[in-house]
Design goal:
- The protein is mainly α.
- It has one domain.
- It is built from 11 helices and no strands.
- Helix 1 (2-23) packs parallel to helix 10 (233-255) and helix 2 packs across helix 9 (204-230).
- The chain is globular and about 50 Å long.
């Protein structure tokens, strides 16, 4: 059970670090560059010290493409936290499980269970509550396009997760360390290249915070794989996703006194229920 709790802690830490960076008005792209530098460095160590690790041009190119999707998803996540709050953004990221599920049904002809069908329906109900939550007069003033950052988080993280499944089905398992190195390495090149080309000022506290973000970012996946080796997925996925939402919500309430309006609370209830149904 220890890897399961460590997964929840690491994933929650990612959300809270993004929120803290927002409160400090740190530039998110500088934060991401520091994050991906550390993640790439750790991935390099995994690759170098894994004697069975292999590499190929195909995996290299696939990782290069996925790297930019990682950057865009993380950027959308940080933007959603600023606009919609920590709790709803975390919920959106966890609801992304619907995307690999739907794509697995379409691409790999997997049959959904009855509970998963209800979970899919409830996901769209949750998205509707997202909309009403952000339109509530008690919430902060938003532009019409701002709502779509929550959807971008759901779609972006969901597509990234499905690409992991594609790699698992398509490429040899021995190339996994090289695949992670390619993703995080190119994500660092893209994010740092943007910082340099746009001449964005680099604040030392933001860069250090980004470096700290890289540690839970990569180890959340590491501990998740360890948890799946000890426990069945039917236990791991619901507990992990719900644990992250609950811990994130409580932390945001305690640290920043975040207000969650009534539609937002309904979104949390429907979202947690949808995650449970989708996980079976």
């Amino acid at each position: 059970m220890i890897p399961l709790f460590l997964t929840i802690l690491c994933s929650t830490s990612i959300v809270l670090i993004l929120k803290h960076n927002d409160t400090q008005r740190g530039d998110v792209i500088v934060l991401l560059a520091g994050n991906y530098f550390v993640a790439a460095l750790i991935s390099l160590l995994f690759f170098v010290f894994d004697e069975t690790a292999q590499y190929s041009l195909t995996t290299f190119l696939f990782g290069a493409i996925l790297g930019i999707l990682f950057v865009l998803s993380f950027f959308a996540f940080a933007r959603a936290i600023r606009l919609a709050g920590t709790s709803l953004s975390a919920l959106s990221s966890r609801l992304s499980v619907i995307i690999p599920l739907l794509l697995s049904i379409i691409v790999y002809n997997e049959d959904p269970t009855i509970s998963q069908i209800f979970g899919i329906i409830l996901t769209f109900v949750t998205i509707l509550f997202f909309y009403f939550s952000l339109k509530d007069p008690h919430s902060q003033s938003l532009k019409p396009a701002d709502y779509f950052y929550l959807i971008a988080v759901l779609l972006g993280i969901g597509v990234n997760d499905f690409c992991m499944k594609v790699f698992q089905q398509w490429r040899p398992g021995m190339e996994k360390p090289f695949f992670l190195l390619s993703i995080f390495g190119f994500a660092f090149i893209y994010s740092s290249g943007y910082v340099i080309s746009r001449k964005i000022p680099i604040r030392r506290p933001t860069l250090i915070l980004g470096a700290g973000l890289g540690i839970p970012n990569i180890f959340s996946s590491f501990f998740l794989l360890s948890a799946l080796n000890e426990l069945p997925g039917i236990i791991v996925y619901p507990i992990t996703n719900i644990g992250i939402i609950v811990l994130t919500t409580l932390s945001a309430l305690w640290i920043w006194h975040e207000y969650i309006n009534k539609p937002g609370r309904w979104a949390l209830i429907c979202g947690v229920t949808a995650i449970v149904l989708l996980s079976f």
